[in-house]
Amino acid sequence: MSIEQQAVELIAQTLRDKPAANLMLATGSTMEPVYALLREAGLDFSLANTFNLDEYIEGNQFREFMNAQLFEHVNICSTNVHFPTLGYDELIYDAGGIDLCILGIGVNGHIAFNEPGASINSRTRVVELDVSTRVRNSQLSGAEIPSKAISVGIATILDCKQIIVVASGKEKHEAINNARYSDISDKCPASFLQTHSDVTWLVS
Ligand code: GLP
User: Fold this and answer.
1) Which CATH number belongs to the domain containing residue 64 in this structure?
2) Ligand 1: nearest atom to the Cα of 26
3) Model pTM?
């Protein structure tokens, strides 16, 4: 089974166990094949809530990505779709917490937009993007990338009950190895995932 199929299987399992599950969702090129399979999976999203990890401070690039890749193709209720805003952590807490969080990983070890230097105690806030992240995301999307974004924090991610990380491509291998096997350090924000008890790495 491909890593994308495994990711969809875990999402399906979550929705089968709990139709009103709260899912935290990622954008990025890695997620495109996951959402393609998810669109075909015929899952029932009618009671599910989604909380995206991040969004640029200007424009709605990630919301548009999610609409095109997933939301327009499944039976999710638009009022159950959430993007980071002020009070996001409280909103998530009041909703009962996140059941499953799907993460990608940046070449520099970022998760969501928690760039190197992010604190393990960080919550949803406005962040400055690394130049390397802006260059890469601009190449991938063909659009200009703002210098700031609003992102869930490391603590927001670690509060999720279950986490899966999907990562493909050689250029991610160093970040993945640092995240999984090096000392826990803010130099590689994904290394904070070592403190969580239910993380599944899907790597190819
Ligand atoms: C992006 C997003 C992350 C994503 C990561 C990897 O900038 N903020 O949530 O997981 O970087 O992106 P990609 O899958 O395009 O390599």
Assistant:
1) 3.40.50.1360
2) 9
3) 0.97
